[in-house]
């Protein structure tokens, strides 16, 4: 049975976000938060007031996709179902997190916009969603705080180590531990981004 708090319609989004975060070595809760905020659907094209479109599950803007054309990436690629658009989004987030200026949240919110007023609105909601996902992930997987030099596994499941296939499988079976709304929303700005431990390595 799927997790009680994971509706069937978002299972692909969660599975793809987790695997993409692991692949590109960025905080899983940030990828999950961006995916929740974008909340696109396969094949979806949403027109913006400036005439551009946001495309697919991770709502890639057509203006940004002009830059991706040099890699052979087409709008139909990011509009498709499956994990490709999540991989591409995590790759893009990794670039913002590693190369942009500002604090972590400003850099992550650059996924949406570098314009300060739009970045700030996106950033504020992103932090709230990322706090919720941090609790959700830590309740189910071994994680580490990415800002610590000596990573210490989260106390929720200190002996559990999962490989990528087990992560996918874990998202389709029932969990012995669920995260309440109260737990998910507490300490919104006091947590740090977390990485999963895969095969014993953060």
Descriptive notes:
The chain is mostly helical and 202 residues long. It has one domain (8-196). Helix content is 47%, strand content 7%. It is built from nine helices and five strands, in the order H-H-E-E-E-H-H-H-H-H-E-H-H-E. The chain has helices spanning 11-24, 28-38, 62-68, 75-79, 84-99, 104-109, 116-138, 164-170, 181-185, and strands at residues 45-47, 53-55, 60-61, 143-145, 194-196. The strands form two sheets. The chain has a three-stranded antiparallel sheet.
Low-confidence blocks of residues: 151-192, 197-202
Distance between the termini: 28 Å
Spell the H/E element sequence: HHEEEHHHHHEHHE
Mean pLDDT level: 76
In short:
With 202 residues, the protein is mainly alpha-helical.
How would the blueprint of this fold be written?
Layout: H1 11-24, H2 28-38, E1 45-47, E2 53-55, E3 60-61, H3 62-68, H4 75-79, H5 84-99, H6 104-109, H7 116-138, E4 143-145, H8 164-170, H9 181-185, E5 194-196
Antiparallel strand pairs: 1-2, 2-3, 4-5
Primary descriptors:
9 helices; mainly alpha; disordered C terminus; two-stranded antiparallel ribbon; single chain; 202 residues; 3-stranded antiparallel beta sheet
